[in-house]
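Researcher: Here's the sequence for the chain we discussed earlier.
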Amino acid sequence: MALTAKLQEALNEQLKYEFESAYIYLAMATYLDSRDLEGATHWMRLQAREEITHAAKFHTYLSDRDANIVLQAIPAPPAKWDSIVATFAAALAHEQKMTERLNKLMDLAQSEKDHATVSLLQWFVDEQVEEEATIKTVIARLKLVGEDSSGLFMIDRDLSTRVIPPQIGAGTTFA
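Model: Thanks. This is the structure I predict for it:
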């Protein structure tokens, strides 16, 4: 069964949003790097990489469904935040917006009775739960230490240990 025009358009839009997310996280990494927060910079760079794998997953899916793939312009992201807490709060707000988009896309796939797309999107819906929970934990820890430089140093060090699980990148690269 071919994708409906409406679903194809929505999936192309989601492809754009995934690339836009990568841009946003790279901008956050750039800002955090300017603040000498190596761990937070590392965390955001990996988040950007993860978003690119998400885009690749949508790209591959559209290709597998013989859809017309349309790469759209990506707006420039913000470049500065007030603090590390504000940066992660913006990341959380972005992920919450992404969750809303994916839920609407899931609603559309269900209404179109496109079970293959529902299956694809279920992975993303589940992933969003983890994304939001992880960022909320980082924010809570940052708020806990406040302006204490020793606490911030420890959190930044912890953020530097982040790795992307192998299943995130499996089969979802452009190479």
